[in-house]
């Protein structure tokens, strides 16, 4: 994992932050701080997937300066907390691999739909590659989004009938619909 | 000398004693009256002095401290009442205002320090929160102590920290905080044995209490032994803006 320019909160250099606290009140403060740190870190580093078994490779869970690591099962319990707010999902049964959504899937889908609407790209088919790797979207936050996550985001939009996802062998794309809001005057 | 005897003598003696008593009372009353007069004059003078130097008192922390000391040495507490004639001095207001601001800072930082804050950090935060004018900036630690002592909800017994959560902290806890402050904000059972010659049980009991109070965090990743950290004494926490 490459080192990133991230502004660590004070807790990151506080050694007991890496030990799950016995006092419930303190622990709740600790977990809250971890949740926000994980999301900030993933946003800054554009990390969509965390494999807990390789967690020590992330500076996030391993502060080598103070020689403190966050334990495997503690990470899982914090990620499970993030799951409750729609900010993470385990993608295997052993809960080792986790997708992280610093924006929830719903937030992502409205971001993408807004981008499409602003460019008047409804009713055309866009390939998934174009959407997140294309030159047009380099300044967008969803640029570089992992395909698995992207498909989940688009599926959410699809449920709102705002697009149709096409996943054929020869084309992997999406067609956005023009949604007309009818105002009753 | 021939001793006088008889009823007459006894009565005479009694009469003399009564006269002495009367004279005594008279003198006492005279003294009391004089004292009252003096005190009255003194009060007037002090009041005059205070209102004359009111601005100085509000502005200058050193002057404020000296005034407080002067009042204390003559058994007067200008903060004690908002009603009495001392209220006209407006000294109390200064401290009440400060006390309210202290509470605000304590509440705002409670989340990270568990309700314990060092006077230095408290002072820095207060100065940031108060107005930019010089008068608002000049707050001494002495002022903070006086204001905090006015708030009965605060624990007492510390001369360098303010505790804003309910619960008693004993001398042992105070000693632990002092040691932790010397040691970059953390402490261990062995450290306390070495420095204070405490048995394990004594240290353990006090440390467990502080963990239960949310004042201390435990660190299990030190290879030698369990460490106890105090966010309120940990530099990075004290200096962090949130």
UniProtKB/TrEMBL annotation, chain A:
GO annotations of cellular component type: ESCRT II complex
InterPro entries: ESCRT-II_cplx_Vps25-sub, ESCRT-II_cplx_Vps25-sub_N, WH-like_DNA-bd_sf, WH_DNA-bd_sf
Entry keyword set: Protein transport, Transport
Protein's GO biological process: macroautophagy; protein transport to vacuole involved in ubiquitin-dependent protein catabolic process via the multivesicular body sorting pathway
GO MF, any single term: structural molecule activity
Gene3D superfamilies for the chain: Winged helix' DNA-binding domain. Chain C. Domain 1, Winged helix-like DNA-binding domain superfamily/Winged helix DNA-binding domain
Family in the record: Belongs to the VPS25 family.
Protein name (Swiss-Prot/TrEMBL): Vacuolar protein-sorting-associated protein 25
Organism of this sequence: Rhamnusium bicolor
Lineage, opening ranks: Eukaryota, Metazoa, Ecdysozoa, Arthropoda, Hexapoda
TrEMBL record, chain B:
Nucleotide-binding listed as a keyword: no
Compartments, record wording: Cytoplasm; Endosome membrane
Record key words, sorted: Cytoplasm, Endosome, Membrane, Protein transport, Transport
Record flagged with keyword Glycoprotein: no
BP-aspect Gene Ontology terms: protein transport to vacuole involved in ubiquitin-dependent protein catabolic process via the multivesicular body sorting pathway
Annotated membrane topology: Peripheral membrane protein
GO cellular component, one term: ESCRT II complex
Function: Component of the endosomal sorting complex required for transport II (ESCRT-II), which is required for multivesicular body (MVB) formation and sorting of endosomal cargo proteins into MVBs.
Family from the record: Belongs to the SNF8 family.
Subunit structure: Component of the endosomal sorting complex required for transport II (ESCRT-II).
Name of the protein in its database record: Vacuolar-sorting protein SNF8
Origin species: Rhamnusium bicolor
């Amino acid at each position: 994992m490459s080192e990133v320019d991230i502004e660590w909160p004070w807790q990151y250099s506080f050694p007991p932050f890496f030990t799950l606290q016995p006092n419930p009140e303190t622990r709740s403060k600790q977990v809250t701080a971890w949740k926000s740190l994980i999301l900030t870190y993933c946003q800054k580093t554009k990390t969509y997937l965390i494999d807990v078994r390789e967690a020590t490779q992330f500076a996030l869970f391993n502060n080598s300066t103070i020689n403190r690591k966050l334990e495997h099962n503690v990470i899982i319990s914090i990620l499970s907390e993030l799951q409750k707010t729609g900010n993470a999902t385990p993608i295997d049964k052993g809960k080792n691999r986790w997708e992280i959504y610093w924006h929830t899937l719903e937030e992502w889908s409205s971001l993408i739909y807004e981008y499409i609407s602003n460019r008047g790209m409804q009713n055309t088919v866009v390939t998934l590659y174009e959407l997140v790797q294309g030159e047009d979207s380099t300044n967008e936050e969803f640029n570089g989004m992992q395909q698995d996550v992207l498909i989940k985001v688009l599926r959410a939009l699809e449920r709102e009938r705002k697009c149709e996802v096409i996943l054929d062998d020869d084309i992997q794309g999406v067609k956005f619909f023009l949604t007309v809001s009818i105002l009753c005057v | 000398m021939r001793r006088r005897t008889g009823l007459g003598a006894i009565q005479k003696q009694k009469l003399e004693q009564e006269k002495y008593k009367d004279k005594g009372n008279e003198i006492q009353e005279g003294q009391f009256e004089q004292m009252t007069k003096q005190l009255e004059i003194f009060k007037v003078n002090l009041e005059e002095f205070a209102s004359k130097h009111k601005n100085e008192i509000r502005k200058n922390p050193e002057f404020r401290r000296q005034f407080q000391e002067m009042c204390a040495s003559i058994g007067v507490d200008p903060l004690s009442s908002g009603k009495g004639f001392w209220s006209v001095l407006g000294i109390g207001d200064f401290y009440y205002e400060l006390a309210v601001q202290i509470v605000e800072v304590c509440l705002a930082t409670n989340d990270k320090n568990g309700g314990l804050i060092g006077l230095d950090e408290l002072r820095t935060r207060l100065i940031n929160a108060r107005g930019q004018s010089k008068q608002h900036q000049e707050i001494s630690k002495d002022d903070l102590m006086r204001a905090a002592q006015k708030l009965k909800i605060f624990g007492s017994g510390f001369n360098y920290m303010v505790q804003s959560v309910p619960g008693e902290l004993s001398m042992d806890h105070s000693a632990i905080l002092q040691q932790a402050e010397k040691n970059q904000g953390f402490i261990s059972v062995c450290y306390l044995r070495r420095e204070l010659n405490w048995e394990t049980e004594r240290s353990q009991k006090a440390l467990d209490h502080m963990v239960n109070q949310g004042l201390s965090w435990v660190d299990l990743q030190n290879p030698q032994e369990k460490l106890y950290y105090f966010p309120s004494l940990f530099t990075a926490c004290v200096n962090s803006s949130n």
